[in-house]
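Fold this sequence, please.
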Amino acid sequence: MCGIGGLIDLERGAQPYAAVGEQMLRALAPRGPDAAGTYSDREALLVHRRLIVIDPAGGAQPMTAPDGDTVLVYNGELYNTEELRRDLSLRGHRFVGHSDTEVLLHAFLEWDTGAFARLNGIFACAFWQKRQRRLVLCRDRLGVKPLFLAHTRGGLVFGSTIGAVLCHPAVEPTIDADGLRTLLLLGPARPPAAGVFRQIDSLLPGHYAVYTPDGYTDRTYWQLEAHEHEDDLDATLAHTHELICDAARRQLVSDVPLACFLSGGLDSSILAMLAAKDYAARGQTLHTWSVDYRDNDKYFTKSAFQPNSDAAYIRLMADALGVAHHEVVIEPDALCAALLPATDARDLPGMADVDASLLLFCAAVKQGGATVCLSGECADELFGGYPWYHREQILFEDTFPWSRSVDLRLGLLRPGVVQDGADFVRQHYLDTCRRAPKLPTDSKKEARMREMFVLNLDWFMATLLDRKDRMSMYSGLEVRVPFCDHRIVEYAYDMPWAFKALDGREKGIVRKAFERELPSAIVWRKKSPYPKTFHPTYARLCADYVRRILSDPDALVSSLFDPAAVEALIAHPERLTEPWYGQLMRAPQILAYIIQLDHWARTHRVRLV
């Protein structure tokens, strides 16, 4: 895993931008602490920061093809490297190392943009072809790895982070009406193609773009399709098990220490179990990691979204697997302080302390000796793990189910800060629903489940993947997400709801597929999300911080939020009857979001237009 960036300028040339390249390398440094590289010619500048995972000697970047014409910078990991290498070798390609970077470069030389549909992995990459004056950008099918871009006069600038793109002098830190509505009414989510800043876009998952003197084109190489599910229940159980096991097996390949996140939930337990078996077969012991908060045993508050805490289930699973388990316990003051670097890591205000705690957790895991980890992210979106899949009154509500009340958000703002806010949110919701492929034979509920699948994939899962990538890579930790294997996604999309919700349970098909390999208490544990703190000290620290921000007349945030409404939220958090976003963002997390928004605006010197 790495950080990439670069620019093309077909008018001025790239040589005047040497200082921009240095700034990009500094901006991307946390993503690649092990090495750095730069390529430049008359019209192109490419930069790369490397986190070494595979082939330390042979995977250096930027990587130039044997003909000296095509140059690659790449952030990601391919999980079908050996199959591709064998196929390319039969076609006459010769390799000097064993990195997936070299395989990706040769795949592009052989198949051009047709290579992308052959890849199994998570990636964002850029190919510069000097003689053709052609830049090709590509992003993986599910958008696990980020790629942002901005058009400039006579060229294009791109990077793994928004901050890298902002290094270009022609890209300004300005927010227009859509950006402001995104931050205040959709955040921490953002539209799939948006970089929030006025000039910055995000290359869509499953897309590639080509830039030449003739212009810029954006094309799709992968998208969901609706098909009849032809397998019966037994075959579905077997194939679900096979797909998950194969994805996990492929993602255990590493030349550096690998560990697993373990929450005591179904998804992380499955991956830890499969990894522990693989390690045991090699005579090794797997290391697992979990996160908790100081005094959460004292302050934990049960809710419909978080029915129980993780600690007992983590111990049960760690003992059952015989792993070397490590627990990271986060203090309230450290969590509040980490809101700021978590904002820097995401380049945007994010999921508040859910981001900040993951940032601290990943830093501890990295310091503990791991460079690669497996995480159970994304199974809930694919197999109906969230409460909004199972509550009919929420399922058929005509809005984003994880952020149902625009009025709640508008009620915290000064009058007139945003215009047409409800229409803006609704249009994004409707556009997403229309993108869901359906079959004429779908029942009303099956059709709605397809819409929910795409809503979750494009918005909620995308937000969680943003969080996972930014918080982990900020500490130089690569986190892999086997459930994001596109083969699992495609199979799950067509699976009947009665199979997904087998036995009337969230992710019922996954539970049944692995029930013989995990402790019963783990298999049938009710879904519980990533933990948050309930410590009153954290809530007080956030409240005090927000009061200081809103008392500053020069702060952008103080011109957006109504101090009286925020103070009422602080005084009466119990009046917030549902999460502000997702399952866990309630009063302290709303305050933390305001803190992040303020820090982000000050750091980037954000201007409203």
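The longest strand covers residues 70-78. The mean pLDDT is 94.
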